[in-house]
Write a structure and sequence with these properties.
The chain has about 220 residues and is α/β, with parallel strands linked by helices. The protein has a domain of about 140 residues: Vaccinia Virus protein VP39 (Rossmann fold), CATH 3.40.50.150. It is built from 6 helices and 10 strands.
Amino acid sequence: MTIYSCPLCQNLLTQLYYEDRQRVYRQCLCCKLVFVPPAYYLSAQAEKAEYDLHQNSPHDMGYRRFLSRIFEPMQARLPAASVGLDFGSGPGPTLSEMFKEAGHTMQIYDIYYAKNHSVWEHSYDFITSSEVVEHLHRPHEELQRLWTCLKPNGFLGIMTKLVIDQTAFASWHYKNDLTHVCFFSRPTFNWIGVQWGCEPEFVADDVTIFRKPELD
């Protein structure tokens, strides 16, 4: 019998959540993350080929409107001239440009398109991650790295569509993207908030903001 550990909380107690012709999806009984076992991960080459198909551009007003769902609530919370990091900026960085236009200083990181490890040597007033966390093979490691780089009182904004229940999951288009391997929900983000000592703020159906507590 194969034992599947949760990639977020490392718990070994997981159960079958859903299965289709392409993949098996399991759910952690602790943090409630729904995840795809590693056997179904695409190779790095195949994964990048999928991302290369994305036509995102800072000149695309429709894409800017899409990103405004995370940009606007983050911008409303930020002091002027903040320093930020956009994690998973993709082949056409746009969210970072929107924050630059608003007067902030930005760094970007992407495993395929902007693999600049020096960004991890700095700390930030805010960090954004738009349509990224669902792709992470090691969400525990990656999210903790982001949290570590965030200054006290800083904001981490995450944009990803959320799991509702098994009935909705069965017909959910989001799961059909083979690069999507982790599916978060409000209970999952609440669990993360407990680990980080803060409460997630659900500002939209697909946008969650965490504020890092001040140091004691």
